[in-house]
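Support case: iron/sulfur cluster complex. Customer-provided input:
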Amino acid sequence: MPENKYKICFPHMGNYYPAFLTLAEVLTCEIVPTPPISKRTIELGFKNSPESVCIPFKYNLGNYIEALDKGANIILQAGGGCRFGYYAEVQEAILKSLGYKFELLKLNNSLNPLKITKEFKRFNPNLTMAKFAYTFSLAYQKARWIEQFEEKIRLNIGFEVNPGEYEKLFKKFLKDLVEARKISLVRRLGREYREKFGAIPIDKPKNPLRVGLVGELYVVMEPFSNFDIEKKLGKRGIEVHRFVTISNIINDFFLGQRPIKHWLRDAKPYLKYHIGAHGSESVAVAHKLAKDGFDGLIHVKPFGCMPEVNAMTALHRVSRDYKFPIIYFSFDSQTSETGINTRLEAFYDMLVMKRKKK
Ligand code: SF4
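Agent response - structure generated as follows:
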């Protein structure tokens, strides 16, 4: 078989590698795995990006430079409704000015299978719409199982009888998931691991502290970018609840304006108009959790993220009206992990004291 001249790479985003890999495999190109995010990734991203651009842009750019250096010649990038919609074009211009030769494959603001198949055919002429639809569904199923187990971990990691068991099993699951190339196999694997996760012994109180995590989607979902905030909280015996996931984003996408209407309804009276990206959702979730008696909320965003900056004003009012503790973290290149840890620790102590008073 002749060697495929195309070598594709895609950026990191949380634990979704097996799902993204499935999508990239439909192109039948060689996959160039992007090295795990490291200090070097960040340095490369920050050095070559405009200073004021959002942090996810910089992380992605660092990912691409590392993959291009390893021989990739196609970049897969998505797009969204805010500045995310311009990432691909700007990154392309920067990388080309650095002398890299590659093609950009942009999953635009459309999940129209016909359009995507047509675009993907540039690299795999034998691709049919049926094949693409199957692959998309396979990747989606993978994402759903990943999210299901991530949630299990977020809610229970602080109560393990034998610390480390959840993470060890989750790593094994992700490895096995990469090899599953049929929907039936993914389902079987998911069910098998659901039992294994369920069998991990935990010692959990009836009414543990419950905290929500909201904010900009990349920083919420990519642990490297938020200094593993979920794990840090979870290990202190807090249930961490988060609602931003890739499958929810895809579902919302197919529902058009409906999710925005729901968010605005839940965010009433704190928001009247949609404030872009996931800003309205952050407010809606905060309002709901405050009413549900959650102990607190963590709001995370990249420095300068307008939708989430807008959300903060409404969040302050939710916090005041419900006496609902909210802590805000803004991430940029200067953010230090020590500072995050200190503030998290103080937030935790405050939640414990508040609970004791109750
Ligand atoms: S949501 Fe915020 S950080 Fe993310 S791309 Fe949009 S503006 Fe940038």
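Residues 54, 56, 82-84, 216, 218, 277, 302, 305-307 surround iron/sulfur cluster (CB under 6 Å).

Case will auto-close in a few days if no follow-up is received.
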